[in-house]
Amino acid sequence: MKTFNVGVIGTGSISSMHLQSYMKHPEVNLVAVCDLNEERARQAADKYGATKVFTDYNELLADPEIDAVSICTWNNTHAEISIAALHAGKHVLVEKPLCRTVEEALRVQEAVKTSGKLLQVGFVRRYDPNAQMLRQFADQGEFGELYFAKASAIRRLGNPGGWFSDIERSGGGPLIDIGVHVIDLCWYMMGRPKPVSVSANTYKKLGNRSNVRNLSFYKAADYDAEKNTVEDMANALIRFENGASLMIDVSFTLHAKENDTSIKLYGDKGGFEVDPEVVVVSEKHDTIVNIYPQTDNKGFDFNSAFQSEVDHFIDSIKNGTTPISPVEDGVEIMKILCGIYESAEKGAEVKL
Ligand SMILES: NC(=O)c1ccc[n+]([C@@H]2O[C@H](COP(=O)([O-])OP(=O)(O)OC[C@H]3O[C@@H](n4cnc5c(N)ncnc54)[C@H](O)[C@@H]3O)[C@@H](O)[C@H]2O)c1
Questions:
Q1: Whole-angstrom Cα distance, residue 298 to residue 10?
Q2: What is the pLDDT of residues 61-87, one digit of tens each?
Q3: CATH code of the domain in which 100 resides
Q4: Contact of 262 with 151, CB cutoff 8 Å
Q5: Looking at the predicted structure, is the pLDDT value of residue 1 above 80?
Q6: Of ligand 1's atoms, which has the minimum distance to the CA of residue 222?
Q7: 80 and 135 share one domain
Q8: Which of 212, 235, 308, 347 has its CA 20 to 30 A from that of 32?
Q9: Same domain, 147 and 175
């Protein structure tokens, strides 16, 4: 059994999902970690058994022992570190979003081509067992043509602060951070139709509401409420070449009565919801039926989704196959996200 030596760059909040999934993989040897914050990197190394600790990712990438890396750093570094890693001969699993701009995304795509190495975008929602099951149903024609999808990722209070709310480092607010998940999942389920136009709005009305007490929320490893240069919320209508459309709304904060994550897709033979709970809608014997598939989890399961993302990464390296979330999909999603910001800025529909 070949052992793959892996390094994790960025050891903040989400890295633990990568680290624990690598640790549990029978063919992976978790060798190294790297973070700008040495203490944080050292703690991760101790907890997950990595022997090498770096504060400069270039040093980790220069280590010939390492075959592959996960990149779990701020969004502004994803393109730069991915390109450096590919050129250093490493396979890459990069957290979502792929990067901040289409131009950066195309540069990463070029590096994948020239290096011949594999890059998997961390669109973790695709790897959830329920999502894979529904995708199989769709492939087998259960829903017919999926022509409309609607998704919400509404946090009433949940601006993570720090780099997330600094547009220079994040590239944007809730759209690029959580909107990316629901847009990608709908697009993937719809069979990845070509996006042709976007009409969108973004709002900065409420600020980060760091004054609010008695309600906790996800925070960056280095939480700081001082700087907030990102939108509070965004909504968009995305049109596809095949006539299908996708409507989304997302927020870090909104005067909503509760958080709301919902993902719904509609076809001409049936429909389904992924969030908050998997349900298939169909017609049997002239009767509308709602079917609740009996699976381990009713909704999205963080642990199994990350484990299958990492398992798929290792399998793809081992078998020399293209991952189900390749760099090309990262590029397409960046076109949609950047189109949404452009449309909101112009106050008009934008052709992609
Ligand atoms: N897939 C998911 O569900 C999910 C969830 C949360 C975050 N994320 C993504 O993961 C990434 C990290 O998010 P997070 O919540 O862990 O943030 P975080 O702030 O908790 O951690 C980021 C870490 O990266 C380190 N870092 C930044 N630049 C670096 C560099 N050049 N070299 C080494 N280390 C560097 C920081 O010091 C910090 O420890 C982001 O891209 C985010 O979008 C994905």
A1: 31
A2: 999 999 999 999 999 999 999 999 999
A3: 3.40.50.720
A4: yes
A5: no
A6: 19
A7: no
A8: 308
A9: yes
Nearest to 313 by CA among 68, 29, 100, 110: 68
- Whether 48 shows a pLDDT value over 80: the answer reads yes
Q: Which residues are near ligand 1 (CB < 6 Å)?
A: 9-15, 34-37, 40, 57, 72-75, 77, 95-96, 122, 124, 162-163, 177, 220-222
Residues 95-116, mean pLDDT to the nearest whole number: 98
**What predicted TM-score, i.e. pTM, was given to this entire model?**
0.98
For residue 41, the ligand 1 atom closest to its alpha carbon is: 39
Question: Could you tell me if 176 and 300 lie in one domain?
Answer: yes
**Quick one: 112 and 157 in the same domain?**
no
Closest approach atom of ligand 1 to CA 73: 24
Same domain for 301 and 161: yes
Domain that holds residue 193: 126-305+333-351
Q: Residue 173 Cα, ligand 1 centroid: separation in angstroms?
A: 14
Atom of ligand 1 nearest to the CA of 160: 15
CA 92-94-97 angle, 5° bins? 150
- Indicate which residue's Cα is closest to atom 7 of ligand 1: 14
Same domain, 223 and 290: yes
Q: What spacing in Å lies between the alpha carbon of 350 and ligand 1's midpoint?
A: 31
Strand 279-284 to 271-275 pairing: antiparallel
The answer to whether 72 and 81 are in contact (CB under 8 A) is: no
Q: Are residues 110 and 154 in the same domain?
A: no
> Same domain, yes or no, for 51 and 28?
yes
Q: Which DSSP string corresponds to 55-80? A: SSHHHHHT-TT--EEEE-S-GGGHHH
Task: Tell me how far the alpha carbon of residue 219 lies from the centroid of ligand 1, in angstroms.
Answer: 11
